[in-house]
Predict the structure.
Amino acid sequence: MRVEVDQPKCVASGQCVWMAPEVFDQDDDGIVQVLNDTPGPADEDGVRESAAVCPAAAIRLVEE
């Protein structure tokens, strides 16, 4: 799995950071930053949940 984000769509809710702090962070304006765009199996559930709850649908998961 590869993680992609559409930063202009991000509304800075921070739910992704809460669900998968090893994969996501926020900049000073609250916009999502990807720390690891190819998370391992231990982080996959949190990443999938982050994508599902993102209010702006700014997170995209690409299955490889």
Residues 2-62 form a domain with the Alpha-Beta Plaits fold (CATH 3.30.70.20).
